[in-house]
Amino acid sequence: CLIPELNVTDAIYLYLRFVSMGIMSKTYSNCALDGAIRYFMWVHMSTASSLELRKEMSTISPFILESFFECFLIKVSVEKLTADKTLQFTLFTRLLCCAPQDMSFRFICNVLRDFPYIQGKYLIIGILKQLFTTKFPKQTTGESKEFAAIKDNKSKEDDLAAHLSKLKIDDSDLVTTKFIDLTLKKMSELTKIISAALKEAKNSKVEDKEFKTAQIYLEFLLSMKTIWSKDLLESLEPDFKSLRAHEKVEAKLKQLLA
Questions:
Q1: Using CB atoms within 10 A of its CB, is residue 8 exposed (0-12), middle (13-18) or buried (19+)?
Q2: Extended strands (E) in 167-242
């Protein structure tokens, strides 16, 4: 069976101590140690419920958690291999889902405002809907059966990732909250961030990263239209229409405001 020799707390501290230095200099990069730490994170996540993981992560300093997630997201953003990027971001997402929601939201806002790698911003925007709309379970189900089937492969992180990605949450189980509760205050905060991004994209061309960011935000808002404040959506109309290439988003903007 899989034995979580390191819990998530220990793994996070080890990651910050040994893996984060490799971000600053290749001299300190250690792929074997990085992989081993991530492996034990996968193992611990497969043997503990989401609620247990959130309780454990709530005991860690928010500063430590935010530093860990930032380092992790930088690693994901600069990863060249698509398979490795997908694997790492899957783990990143699952950890962020189980982190205390106030810290998670604060981290997300900081990334959307100031993160140095545009790829990291795209990744975060891509999971926002999932974080705001997915029920947070008191208990995950089916994990033990899934992982009993791969007990002979405990040394293979890829096998763990493949099986973890297939795990389902029993929606009939009692739930406490969403991964992040979407309140009017949070909507307002994100709307301000989106507005600032649109103003930055005002004079950008279609091929520029700023315009692509504006398009991704529009897609996100469309997916959240039914639960987002209509007043806040309408407040973004002037920013979208001020885009130099606004005709490229005109049709979807009409859908958003309809």
A1: buried
A2: 175-178
Q: pLDDT tens string for the chain (258 positions)?
A: 445 567 899 999 999 988 888 777 777 777 888 888 888 888 888 888 888 899 999 999 999 999 999 999 998 898 888 888 888 899 999 999 999 999 999 999 999 999 999 999 999 999 999 999 988 876 544 443 333 333 444 344 455 445 444 444 333 333 457 899 999 999 999 999 999 999 999 999 889 999 999 999 999 999 999 999 999 999 999 999 999 888 888 999 999 998
Retrieve residue 202's tokens.
């005002």
Which of 33, 12, 42, 49 is closest to 150 using CA atoms?
A: 42
Indicate the residue type of 194: I
Kindly tell me the number of DSSP H helices and DSSP E strands found in the chain. Answer: 15, 2
Spatial separation of the C-alpha atoms in residues 230 and 143, rounded to whole Å: 40
CA–CA separation, 24 vs 221, rounded Å? 35
Please give the model's pTM, rounded to 2 decimal places.
Answer: 0.81
Token code pair at residue 159:
């096998």
Largest Cα–Cα separation, the chain? 58
Instruction: Write out the two tokens for 149.
Output: 């089937």
Q: What CA–CA distance (Å, rounded) separates 170 from 121?
A: 30
Nearest to 105 by CA among 49, 62, 60: 62
- Rounded CA-CA distance 214/247 in Å is 13
**What are the tokens at 110?**
């900081």
